[in-house]
């Protein structure tokens, strides 16, 4: 009984908001106004952070490795764009449609991760993304094929806030959706359900032995993560007015994996921090050397893995005791 109470207390403590989190989100929401000339990249960071958060739900909290997460991202993007073009341009309704279609796709695809090894899941999830990309290419009468879905016009958010060329409305819109889904994800992972996900991640056989319905848990978390990825895709197509086959490509899944390598898995702020670092590095390095920016990001990742995340930001620990390793040594 006391163990149950202590576990519940630990979950409640982890789910509480700290003062620095409130300041962080207040600064994030104020950034499109304070940094109006950089509103477009703020919008991109918010969308990538949401995409990374969705992957962290299955990778960091459940231990499911996926290279096809772009399938849900692209599905959400195309669904929202087609809804806006063919039905109605309301952004919030289109966002809901994008989330719904990606969630349904996630529920269907969740059965593919229940069996096999990590390598099997990698291949299966990658295959799903490639199949959807080929379908979008063949259905060019609907999706625009290789030319992409163009002419997507969005109405004002809440009927009042028009999308402007500077990208301020887009940035606020994406940051608000990110915050709402972050709050829901925080409640999700710090609930008793989230605790069972961590048990499955640590030892699936032991979780089954103590009575945790592993298959049902995997289906639920995979479906939820797919819906969050669909929301990120919907935000991208809505704020850019364009959807293309590029949304399904492998590099999307690889990029979001790199974001989590940079920021860390198993904590929700890892996706946010990783997206911020990745996008700023990409923007800065590509402005200096457009041809070789991937080389420098790759070099940064190698150093990050070899040195360790905590030691990289605290260089004075590099020459400490040789037998000790910092907590952030694993990238």
Task: Present the secondary structure layout.
Blueprint: H1 2-15, H2 19-34, H3 39-59, H4 70-86, H5 91-109, H6 118-138, H7 140-143, H8 168-189, H9 192-202, H10 204-209, H11 214-240, H12 250-263, H13 269-288, H14 293-307, H15 309-313
Helix pairs in contact: 2-8, 3-8, 3-11, 3-12, 3-13, 4-5, 4-6, 4-11, 5-11, 8-11, 9-11, 12-13, 13-14
Short description:
With 331 residues, this protein is mainly α. It has helices spanning 2-15, 19-34, 39-59, 70-86, 91-109, 118-138, 140-143, 168-189, 192-202, 204-209, 214-240, 250-263, 269-288, 293-307, 309-313.
Description of the structure:
- By secondary structure, the chain is an all-alpha fold.
- The protein has a domain at 20-250.
- The chain contains 15 helices and no strands.
- Mean pLDDT is 82; it is low at 321-331.
Keyword list:
331 residues, mainly alpha, 15 helices, globular
Overall morphology? globular
Largest sheet: none
Radius of gyration: 20 Å
Summing up helix and strand content along with how strands pair, one would put the structural category as mainly alpha
Task: Determine the fraction of residues in helical runs and give it as a percent range.
Answer: over 70%
């Amino acid at each position: 009984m006391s163990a149950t109470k202590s576990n519940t207390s630990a979950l409640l403590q982890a789910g509480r908001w700290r003062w620095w989190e409130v300041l962080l989100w207040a600064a994030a929401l104020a950034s499109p106004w304070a940094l109006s000339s950089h509103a477009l990249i703020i919008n991109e960071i918010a969308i990538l952070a949401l995409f990374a958060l969705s992957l962290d739900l299955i990778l960091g909290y459940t231990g499911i490795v996926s290279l096809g997460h772009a399938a849900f991202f692209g599905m959400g993007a195309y669904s929202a764009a087609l809804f806006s073009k063919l039905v109605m341009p309301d952004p919030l309704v289109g966002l809901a449609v994008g989330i719904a279609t990606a969630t349904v796709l996630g529920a269907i695809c969740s059965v593919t991760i229940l069996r096999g090894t990590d390598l099997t899941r990698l291949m299966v999830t990658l295959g799903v993304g490639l199949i959807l990309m080929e379908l979008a290419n063949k259905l060019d009468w609907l999706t625009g094929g290789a030319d992409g879905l163009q002419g997507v016009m969005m109405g004002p958010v809440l009927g009042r806030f028009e999308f402007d060329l500077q990208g301020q409305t887009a940035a606020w819109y994406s940051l608000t959706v990110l915050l709402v889904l972050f709050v829901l994800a925080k409640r999700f992972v710090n609930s008793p359900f989230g605790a069972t996900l961590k048990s499955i991640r640590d030892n699936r056989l032991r979780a089954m032995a103590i009575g945790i319905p592993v298959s049902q848990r995997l289906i639920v978390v995979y479906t939820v993560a797919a819906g969050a990825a669909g929301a990120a895709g919907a935000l991208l197509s809505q704020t850019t007015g364009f959807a293309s086959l590029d949304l399904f490509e492998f590099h999307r899944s690889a990029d979001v994996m790199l974001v989590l390598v940079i920021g860390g898995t198993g904590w929700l702020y890892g996706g946010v921090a990783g997206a911020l670092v990745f996008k700023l590095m990409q923007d800065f390095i590509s402005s200096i050397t457009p041809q070789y920016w991937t080389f420098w990001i790759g070099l940064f990742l190698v150093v990050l893995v070899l040195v360790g995340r905590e030691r990289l930001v605290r260089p004075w620990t590099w020459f400490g005791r040789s037998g000790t390793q910092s907590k952030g040594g694993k990238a």
